[in-house]
Write a structure and sequence with these properties.
By secondary structure, the protein is mainly alpha-helical. The protein is 62% helix and 0% strand. This is NTP pyrophosphohydrolase MazG-like domain-containing protein.
C-alpha cells in the first residue's frame, strides 16, 4: 500500500474493485442505507470504546479505526457511482469551513 494515496487514486482503486462484479454500483438509496449501517457500526464502536456501554463477550472485536475505514470505503463507492470527485468536494468544503467558521470556536492564536 502506498503512503502517498490521494483521494483520486483511492476512488480509482475502489472503482476498479467494484467493476469486477456484474452488479456494479448499487442504487443511491441502497448505498445510503449501507452508509447508514456503517455509521451505526462506527457509533457502536465509539460507544464501546469511549462510552459506558461495554461490549459483550460474544461480539466481534472491531475497532473505531476499522469502522471508520468502512465508512470511508462506502463513501467513496457512493461518490463514484454519482460521479462526484471527492478531492473537489474536499477543497470546496475546506474553503467554506475556513471562511464561515473562522471565528466560530475559540482560536489558539487569540484572533
Amino acid at each position: 500500500m502506498s503512503e502517498n494515496y490521494t483521494l483520486i487514486a483511492m476512488q480509482k482503486e475502489v472503482d476498479q474493485y467494484i467493476q469486477q462484479f456484474k452488479s456494479g454500483y448499487f442504487t443511491p438509496l441502497a448505498q445510503t442505507a449501507r452508509l447508514t449501517e456503517e455509521i451505526g457500526e462506527l457509533a457502536r464502536e465509539v460507544n464501546h470504546y469511549y462510552g459506558e456501554k461495554q461490549k459483550k463477550a460474544t461480539e466481534a472485536p472491531n475497532t473505531v479505526k476499522e469502522e471508520l475505514g468502512d465508512v470511508l470505503f462506502v463513501t467513496m463507492i457512493m461518490a463514484n457511482s454519482l460521479d462526484i470527485d471527492l478531492t473537489e468536494v474536499f477543497e470546496k468544503n475546506m474553503k467554506k469551513f475556513n471562511q464561515r467558521d473562522r471565528y466560530r470556536f475559540e482560536r489558539k492564536d487569540n484572533e
